[in-house]
Amino acid sequence: MLSTMKLLLIEDDPSMQAALQRALSRRGMEVLACTDGRKALAQWTAAEPDVVVLDLSLPGLDGLQVLEQARRQGLTTPVLILTARGTVGDRIIGLNTGADDYLPKPFDLDELEARLRALSRRRPTSSTEPGAGGHTAGELRYEKESGAIYHRDQVLELTPRELALLQALIVKPGQAVSKEGLFELVFPGETDVQYEAVEVVVYRLRKKIARTGVTLVTLRGLGYLLKVDAP
Q1: How far apart are CA 148 and CA 72, in angstroms?
Q2: What is the C-alpha separation between 77 and 160, in angstroms, rounded?
Q3: Hey, what domains does the chain have and what are their CATH numbers?
Q4: Maximum CA pair distance of the chain?
């Protein structure tokens, strides 16, 4: 028998919220609903849910802002973004900000339930062993479940663009990632931004990860890589 899943539903549309709360409750889930972005973080912290369902278009704070702040606070709850904004660019931004899954509206309720139960099974435990759903390089640890990168036991304070760039490099330490590839991750869908903008993010990130046991190396003509410093 499946255990009761505690779900935090952050959705501002009254009809959608009521329909989901009713349908998911009938499927054995304990559903707490929140309609405002500014109140969402407080409820998230207090509820300690198994999974969060997050709409992007919210009053107070946009859904991506809620997600970014939650990850910065160390909240590791798996997040499924549920929104009408279903373009590839929106999905990349959401996943880079720390979401675990993405389901565009309209959707099938059976698929939603299956995705939620899969996320619940993947929820991180109190153990944060390197290699268990994450990557390490030097003194940095990337937890893929939460999207956060830690220096020792402290969350590294990074902007979303810096985080996206470091995530791309830390999963392949010692391997070059092209500037073009990084651009697509750091500036998804931003056609008015030049490739050279990646260099600005690299410059700022390089200073933030100084003395963490890794060096961000520029390889002319190839891209960038994360090099683990010799002990």
Answers
A1: 7
A2: 18
A3: 5-121 (3.40.50.2300), 134-228 (1.10.10.10)
A4: 58
Residue given tokens 């990337």 in the structure block: 142
CA-atom Rg of the chain in angstroms: 19
Q: Is 25 helix (H, G, I), strand (E, B) or coil?
A: helix
Give dist(CA 67, CA 79) in Å, integer.
Answer: 8
Residue 210's contacts (CB-CB under 8 Å, 6 or more residues apart) are none
- Strands (E) across 66-193 are located at 79-83, 101-104, 134-137, 140-143, 149-151, 154-155
Mean pLDDT, range 42-65, rounded to an integer: 85
The SS3 of residue 13 is coil
How does pLDDT run across 3-51, given as a tens digit for each residue?
688 999 999 888 999 999 999 999 999 999 998 888 888 888 887 899 9
Contact call for residues 108 and 101 (beta carbons, < 8 A): no
Which two three-digit tokens encode residue 23?
């349908």
Q: Number of C-alpha atoms within 13 angstroms, CB side, residue 50?
A: 16
User: Can you state the percent helix, strand and coil of the chain, rounding each to 5?
Assistant: 40, 20, 40
